[in-house]
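Re-run with default settings, no changes from the original entry. Doing this only to confirm the output is reproducible before filing.
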Amino acid sequence: MEQPSTSALQTSAPAASSSSPSLEDIMKLLRGKTDSQRLAGLLLVTKFCDKDDQLTILNVYRALGSTFLHRLLLTGTGKGSGGGGDDANREAYLRLSVTVLAAFSRVSQIAATDEMLSKIPLILEVMSKESGSSLSEECYEFIFLVTNAHEDGVITLFESGGMNVLASQMPILPDGSHAMELAMKLVQLTVSKLPAEKVFVGYPSELSKMVSAIAKQFALLHNALKFEALHLLSTILSSSHSGVLHAALLSMGDDWSTRIRIGVIDVLQNRVVPAEKLHALVLAECVISFVGEEWLIGPATLPGAQSSMPDVRCILLVLESSRVEIAVMLNELAYLKYEASKNSPINSEAFLGKLRNVGVAFSLVERIIKLIAKFSENEESNSTFNICDSTSTKMIRGLNETIGVVLDYLQDAKDHGEKKGNDLLASVRIAGSYLAEAPDACNEKVKELLGYMLSVEGENESSPFHSISFLLPMLCQITMEDDGCKLFASTGAFGAVVGFLISLIDTSSARIDNCSSSTVFLACDTVLNFLLKREQLRFSLENSWSVKLLRALIRWTEDTMEPSVIMMASSICSLILDSTSERDLLRHPDFCADDVSALSQLMKRSLVSCGQVFSVMSLISHTYSLFS
């Protein structure tokens, strides 16, 4: 294009300096035959036309046409036929073309055109070269408005290198700026409208840089953009395709997770609407799934900032907020199930929404239980963070109250004759997690509900299985004591655990030649604990259970050489055989002479295994004596 100097641009329309030109005069210039006239017209448009007057902007766009503006942009980027002239002229052309494009993009009718879409690669190139310049905001505005308006906008942005530009730009954009807000909106469009494989699997490193930049906004800001950052972080980190991102984030260190912790604390400790607090809990759960429960304890301020908040501030707030969420959601779920349903069918969408919410809170409480248990086990360790006794006592008191609320919800379900439901199964799970660490908690309620809890089924279960699995650690502990064994016998827990163990053994995953099936061994330990105290309790084994368990243990050991499996199975078989006779067993229709023979072989293999163990122990002892 012909290239007038910047001084020529400033004097092309002398009348403009003394009085405002009419719109008709500006349109004549825009339709002029020379580039100088069109440039003058554009300058007048930027000075005298209202940027919010969309009709005028549309008329300007139609008068100017697309060819001239495209040539102007190329010239500004140094790609024009004349090379763009000197730096001052090139800068002026670039600034003018970007300003006009941004104005055009504010009219959705223009932004949705193919002509505007075709400018995205060029504007991205400008952004990458003019990083930190005053043009950034207008470039981001143009990219966002066109990307949002055109049906092919997101894919064009993506295929034009948008991910790389955003990843390099976002960490250096001013905090809380309009450009940062638009950049976050572009990330939101990208992750929500494109296949996750393209974004998460194809650009994990770039996405991790964006997450860190967004996390900084979440930590620092105190306006609406803070909550946009919260929602965007939740969307990204909760994606089912975030596995590759996980590795990229971990390689960046812990700045991003510290920033999120600070933002979560800020939301949970201030007066914000419950929905935003729930979002903060969702985000906390996502981060923990990436870095572990220890994230809940750590610095509550950015590096270099002064703060008197203790490192346990986050865990206390998450626990308290989760407790409130559980109490409210369980009350609302109970109302929907038992009261509202009397007058109309349950609103399944509302029910599932509340179930998801309580699931997040349950998960966080379960992770806190796990963390407290971990610290209790390692009191002598040199851990970076720890929980003092007063804080631990406060948390345990709160957990006791919350598990009491959960047990009340289960009691309500029992009273209404309900045993099936994912809400009930989730309640059993969290109760089991806590009771595994504190078997004596809520003692009276547990005694009342243990049999019921063992009978709870998930929506897709045909018989209780997961509920027994969730309660197994607690059952294993209580069967070490006489009172626990009495409860175990009186509630039907023995039959439930034996049935569970048989089911586990008969799954292909359990029939393996190593000790990795910890759940099978936990169930075996529970049965073994009880059988060792059976005579004191005067509990008689039913032949049907005895036969089923003996045959299952034979199947478990028939193809294995693992000593721990053989010895565990033979120990249980020996205790069962002590309480019955071969004659009584053979009278049972499901037990035959082949089973007796298999049991004999199991006992023989057990004795051999014991001999090998004792031989190894003897050798170790002898070796030690030689060197001592």
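Residues 5-18, 509-516, 613-628 have pLDDT under 50 and may be disordered. Residues 66 and 626 are 95 Å apart (CA to CA).
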